Amino acid sequence: MKQVHFITELFDKYDGRSLQAYLDAGGFTALKKLFDISSEAVLAEIDASGLQGRGGAAYPTGKKLRQARAEKAARKFVVCNADEGEPGTFKDRELLKCNIYQVIEGMVIAGICTQSQEGIIYVREEYTNMHDEIRAAIAECYKHNYLGKGIMGSPYNFDLKLFSGAGSYVCGEGFAMCESMEGKSGRPRSKPPYVKQEGFLRLPTLVINTETLSAIVSIIKHGADSFRRYGTEKSPGTKLISISGKVNRPGVYEIPFGLTIREIINDLAGGIRNGKKGHFVQIGGASGGILPERLWDTPYTYEDLAKAGLSVGSGAIVVADEDNSLLDYLKVVQDFFRHESCGKCTPCREGNRQLRFIFDRIINGTATAADYDNLEIVLDVMGKASLCGSGKTEVVPFRTAQRYFPELFMTKECFVAKKAVV
Fold first, then answer.
1. Is the pTM of this model over 0.85?
2. How is domain 19-228 classified at the architecture level of CATH?
3. Is 287 exposed, middle or buried (0-12, 13-18, 19+ CB in 10 A)?
């Protein structure tokens, strides 16, 4: 069982833009089930499923919803994080394009379960071509009483709108997203308080990923046991992955946890292009770890990737072949982070600047022992002292590259001396 269709069961089976087609295919049955069994029973089902947040943090979804529910305020928000700004990550795009109504249904369910009456779908600016279709879907749901007051004749109200991001990667971070929606520069805030306590407009805000919302609908519709039929004990269920790079069939696939990286590349993505040998993959997005070809038999699970120093992250897998230089690849990754740093905190802003200088010298072969020492210092400070998760996780690709390709991170003199000893 390589590719499965649990969350994506309706992909290509109906016109993803038609509300009636969604209803004919069983749409909004999960919401109806909520009315029958109560929001507490729905939360219990999500707990039982073992679903973890699919945006990268892997936080238990049931726990997150309960924490949001515990916040008491007259006005609370649910925000769908569809910013998806990391290179190599495009699985949420497919959910928005192929089944926007399932995302909306997930928003309503999350709103009712957390006692929130307002929702916002925060979509990255680069997905402009989908904005009108999302707004049209929202309008259709209002027209047929799946949004607004007294949803489906129930006592629940939920209003929803779309917000277009400004093209900044860091706006995928919860507080930066809230600042962006308030018309300010998208920059993180210091914690505490947390987004769930004082997010958008300084009100309790649940920021939740697009895939997580879609998964909630499928879990409530089919039951936690159906979800747990896939995956492993510690990594239950399925995951949408975005695979790109030097493969024959790049794209979005829904897989059960437990497949190996090699199975994903060879059996789903059609193997390496042009019969080349694999070199490395980056897993989890631009801030994800680097895994060499010799370890591609590692299972794609939270626990197995953690042992290797990596994480599932956003679900991105970028494949490099024997012609790709790892140092050149890391330079591109570092250029991305340097460009996208919001500049608010010194460790990330200046750390990225120094990394650029050091990497230029490493690639040019002019790096000194001091450069390699400074690389360690910069990565350490960024990982520990950056204000938000962006700066903290930017060090991951470099740390994992050091772990698996140590020969690239030593002076020529040290490398020659090591070879002589060996």
1. yes
2. 3-Layer(aba) Sandwich (3.40)
3. buried
Q: What is the pLDDT of residues 39-96, one digit of tens each?
A: 999 999 999 999 999 988 899 999 999 999 999 999 999 999 999 988 999 999 999 9
Question: Which of 3.10.20.600, 3.40.50.300, 3.40.50.12780, 3.30.70.1290 is the CATH number of 238-321?
Answer: 3.10.20.600
The DSSP-derived string for 256-276 is ETT-BHHHIIIIIS-SBGGGP
| Token output for 289 | 């770890």
CA distance readout (Å), 149 to 74, 142, 145, 402 = 16, 9, 8, 55
3-state helix vs strand vs coil in the chain, percent to 5: 50, 15, 35
Cα torsion through 56, 58, 61, 62, rounded to 10 = -170
- On whether the CB atoms of residues 232 and 257 are closer than 8 A, the answer is yes
What's the pLDDT tens digit per position in 218-233? 999 999 999 999 999 9
